[in-house]
Structure formats: C-alpha cells, structure tokens
Amino acid sequence: MSDVQLGMPELPAPDYPAEVRARLEADAREVIARYPDSRSALLPLLHLVQSEEGHVTRTGMRFCAEVLGLTTAEVTAVATFYTMYRRKPSGDYQVGVCTNTLCAVMGGDAIFEELQSHLGVGNGETTEDGKVTLEHIECNAACDYAPVVMVNWEFFDNQTVESAKGLVDDLRAGRTVEPTRGAPLCTYKETARILAGFPDARPGAVEAGGSAGPASLVGLRLAKGEAAPGRVVSPRSADAPQDEAPPTHPSSHDAPQRTSASDPHHPAGPVAEEGE
C-alpha cells in the first residue's frame, strides 16, 4: 500500500505583522547595501530572520525571497543546505557536544550520552521549558581542550560529565555562566543577529572576543622564534604542583568508548555496505 498522502497543496507562507515587516526591511536594506550583488546578502538575511523567531520559518524565507528578488525555491535550497539555519523551533541555548574523534575518546561521547538522559531529549531536540537544544556536532577546532562543549558557539573547554550537567542546569535556571574564553554568553536569537552582521552592543563583549587559547598557540610562537613555555597547563590541572603528575582525566578515556553509537537514532556514516 502506498504511503503517499493526497490532499490540498500547502498554502503560501503568511507574511510578518506590519510592524515586524517594517523593522526587518530596514535591517535588510542595511545588510544588502554591503554587497555589490544583492543576492550575496542571502546568508546574513537568513540569520536576520532567524533572530526574529529562533529558526528559519516559511515566513522568513518568503521575506528573504521578496527583498532579494529571488524565488522561495532558491532561498529554501540555501536554508536547507546549511545546518546553521534551524528549521524548527529551538531553545534559547544551543548546547553542542563535540563528538568528533579526539573529543569523543576524551569523553565527549560520554558527555553527550549523559546529557541526553539528564535533559530527557535526543539529538536536535529541545527541553520542555524551551531553554536548551542539545546536539552533537563536528570538530570545533579546539582539540587542545577536548572534550569541548559549545553554547551558542561560545567555548566551554575541558568539560567532564559533571561539569556539563552543571552547565545545562545553570542555563535552564537562568544563572549566569561564563565561557572559558570569548565573549559573554547571549541567547540564540541575539547570536543570530550578531551573525547577520549587526554590532554586539553589550558592554565589553567586543573586547572579550574569542581567540585561540595558549595551548593552541604554542606552535605559532615556536615558528616565530619565541621561547616555548615550560608546560601548558589545562584549567583542570592549573593548581597541580609542577613536580607532580596532573590528575588522571575524569572522563576515563583510557577505557573503550562508544562513538556515534551513543546516539543510535542519528548514526554517522553510510548505512549501506560499499557497492550497494
């Protein structure tokens, strides 16, 4: 029996309310003016509409198409290609656990599995209070600080299962959390507006902009002829005496760890054998 569902075609997306439309059009004109070809503004405009509703809706794609003179199909093709654009409602805080190779074996898989249980959600799902969306993500170029958790693209380095659980509990409770490095944390909608190209007006946010940490810069400093530091100490072992070995990693990464199988509903890699 066929699974095809017959019915009425989907109606056109509704427009934004007049006051919202006027505000977004003013922002869109500012963004478009930065580019010699207006269609080049599509990526930041998708961030702009995402900052309005927390994800890219059909209304948002209609808006982008209209102000850029594109078809909705052209806009949809871009919005569905990039994972940075959300296609369904999501939380105030996107909590991404790196499960790429190094972070995985250092404890990232254990963190991701525990957070699923602790929050009662699966990959890409949002807690009932609308605060946290959990996802496993690919490399964040912070392998020196594995395992890494990112919240709205800000770094939380050298995480453990317990520190990650405390982090999401603080986010849900509205308590202030400070990234390991980089700008102070803001909501996902605020992050989307910044990614659209609008200034971060929060006091001190620009000055605190993220950069590579000391462990990541050792090779660059050696290449410049600078003296190498005696030892790069991670935040977890910063208080360890210099003549003593640092404590063992609390993630027990020497033990075999499951990798993508920690999220059986979203396995990585091909599901068929080669040649099928």
TrEMBL record:
A Pfam family matched in the record: 2Fe-2S_thioredx
Cite the entry's keywords alphabetically.
Answer: 2Fe-2S, Iron, Iron-sulfur, Metal-binding
Q: Which cofactor does it need?
A: [2Fe-2S] cluster
SUPFAM superfamilies hit by this protein: Thioredoxin-like
Record PROSITE patterns: COMPLEX1_24K
Q: Where is this region: Disordered?
A: 226-276
Instruction: Please name the InterPro entries in this protein's record.
Output: NuoE-like, NuoE_dom, NuoE_N, Thioredoxin-like_sf
Q: Which domain of life is it from?
A: Bacteria
Metal-binding is among the record's keywords:
yes
> PANTHER family, per this entry?
NADH DEHYDROGENASE [UBIQUINONE] FLAVOPROTEIN 2, MITOCHONDRIAL (PTHR10371:SF3), NADH DEHYDROGENASE UBIQUINONE FLAVOPROTEIN 2, MITOCHONDRIAL (PTHR10371)
Stated family = Belongs to the complex I 24 kDa subunit family.
- Name of the protein in its database record: NADH-quinone oxidoreductase subunit NuoE
